[in-house]
Amino acid sequence: MTRAVIRSTGRYLPPRILTNETLSEWMDTSDEWIQKRTGIQQRHWIPEEGDVGASDLGYEAAVVALQRAGWRADELDLILFATLSPDLFFPGSGCLLQRRLGLRETPALDIRQQCTGFLYGMTTADAYIRSGLARRILLVGAEVHSTGLDISTRGRDVAVIFGDGAAAVCIEGVSADDDVGVLASALHADGTYAESLMVEAPASRFNPRINENMLRQGRQYPVMDGRNIFKLAVHRLPEVTAEVLQKAEVGLDQVDLFIPHQANLRINQAFEKTLNLPEGKVFHNIQRYGNTTAASIPLALDEAWEQGRIGPGGTVVFLGLGAGVTWGAVIHRFPDA
Ligand code: ACO
Q1: Which of 109, 158, 259, 304 is least crowded, fewest Cβ atoms below 10 Å from its Cβ?
Q2: pTM of the model as a whole
Q3: Could you tell me which of 170, 179, 150 has the C-alpha nearest to residue 162?
Q4: DSSP letter at 5?
Q5: Which domains are seen in the chain, by residue range?
Q6: Is the model's pLDDT at 310 over the cut of 90?
């Protein structure tokens, strides 16, 4: 049977670091509020002058992942690019990344599932590999949030949580009798909550897509019903984890590490408590990066691997919930060394 196995990971964070103290100079917030409600201490943002898109951050992460896999870019069968902050309205960031990698024909597909982009991307990669459509896939999650945030007190509930960054994984189809690679996935969406977390404009349903009045009203900035999203997350994440474990016929105690989307430390601590998991089973790094949306799970995987929290033969569950709302989980076992 052909299995979709993660061969390597890579990450890239822009060097500019924003502390909670810096944000407190721009808006009515405090280090204490941000840490208590979210766990976040700092985040990375692109340079203030801009001119760096999601595909540029994604490129840096992709180069590291490709080099660690020992793959040349022209050996890729498919590029999957997950982002909610594409460089342009169109074409997709995947095409821009493909161009930067020096490729001329390799297909590129953008995934617009926000915080669950990596989960939808892994599942898509698995389907391509199992069906024989592709053997070597690059999956990138990358975000530039900082250029789209309201950094006044009006936008403080959202502005303090988001960070810029990128991470990439190389996924390979391998013939294996053992249970390795993607063992199962569970994906869901509920559009009833579309307005609970969104950026309203520019949008094709407005003519023109944005105007000065809308800009003055701040309708180009993300809005979030944080309490509602929080409640949905603490309910759905344990539920979808149970679903994916059941599908894979893997017990909770057979999982070496849970890597949740890093949206809020309190959400992930609630997940840990609900499942009654022992200390160290859930990976957190939101403290240093904030919420990097599509990049957050692969970024956490890259660090977890580097720190030896997961390694050859290890079983990991990726999970998350975000705008849409969408939520899901993917269980993956690394082959033995
Ligand atoms: N600094 C200081 N005070 C603030 C800030 C801030 N940055 N932001 C909001 N407040 C105030 C509010 O105005 C409110 O004041 P009030 O009581 O006088 O009305 C008070 O703090 C409490 O606000 P809540 O919104 O109830 O705070 P909460 O504890 O819910 O924390 C947060 C807010 C951190 C946003 C939380 O709700 C959360 O993390 N929600 C889930 C986020 C999430 O998972 N998003 C999905 C992923 S993102 C994606 O998909 C793109």
Answers
A1: 109
A2: 0.96
A3: 150
A4: E
A5: 2-175 (3.40.47.10), 181-333 (3.40.47.10)
A6: yes
